[in-house]
Structure formats: structure tokens, C-alpha cells
Amino acid sequence: MGRVEARLEAMGLALPKPWTPRGQFLPWRREGRTVYLSGQINEWGGEVTCHGPVGEGGVDVVTAQAAAQVCALNLLYALRLACDGDLDRVDYVLRLGGFVNCVPGFAQSPAVINGATALFIELFGDAGWHARTAIGVAGLPGNAAVEVDAIVVLREDVSERS
After folding, report:
1. Is 160 part of any domain?
2. For residue 71, is it within any domain?
3. Fewer Cβ neighbours under 10 Å: the N or C end of the chain?
4. Distance between CA atoms of residues 141 and 23, nearest Å
5. CATH for 10
6. pLDDT digits over 40-87, tens only?
């Protein structure tokens, strides 16, 4: 077990079991050292863990942050596949994109996506810091509360594959 997965285990977290995407897309695509990770909703074992909308009268921010962490775990699962099973090959996280299924006027999307950001920083240290967007939307697949995508750069010793 590598350093990153040992940290994950020490946090009491695990990557999901293999899953099938909900639509016709690849969970990841690699171009050289750059891995583009498709958006992942807060789904675990085929079930959405938290349904939207987030905000007044709906899901609270703390619960939505936990949903964002589930999205991050799903991203890490796909990333591990792109890294030939070794998350220690990650050089740095370049960007996260976050989408929050929320009520109109909800202004705390950045706080929700912090649930994913915090996990990447905890696992990768300074290399986990990234550029980011956090956008409120009217709906997501499966009525999920959160979806997150990412772009990650691998160390130079990783061979090209896709």
C-alpha cells in the first residue's frame, strides 16, 4: 500500500468498489502527464448518498460537504486506475470543478466543495492545493447533491496511456 492510500486508511476512509458510470463516458482520460477525471456524483455502491437540493429547507452545508467528500473518493478511484494502481504517482492536483444541486440564491457552493478540496489537501499535502470552481445548479444526475470533476498531473515517470 502506498503513502496516499495509507493516509486514506488512517483517516478511516476507503475507495469505493468498482462501479459502472451512469452515462456513456470514460471515468478518466490521460494525455501525457495530465489526467482528466470525469465528474463524479456522491454515489456509493450504486446509491446516491445525499439528494439535493442543498440550502434553505433542504440539505445543510455540513451534510453536503460530506457528499462532496464521497465525490472525491470516487474521483480517487478513477485516478488510481489512471495511475496504474499507484496514487503516489500524482505530482499535483491542477483543478477541481464543483457543482452543487441547490436552491435558487444559495451562496455557499464554495463551502460545500471544500469537502472535496479538504480531502485532496489532506492526502497530497501542498500538491493537493488546486484551482477551483464551485457552481450552484438546478439539478444533477440521480438528484445527487454534489458532483465534482478534476484535472491531475502525474509525475514525469508515468508512461502515456489512455
Report:
1. no
2. yes
3. N
4. 10
5. 3.30.1330.40
6. 999 999 999 999 999 999 999 999 999 999 999 999 999 999 999 999
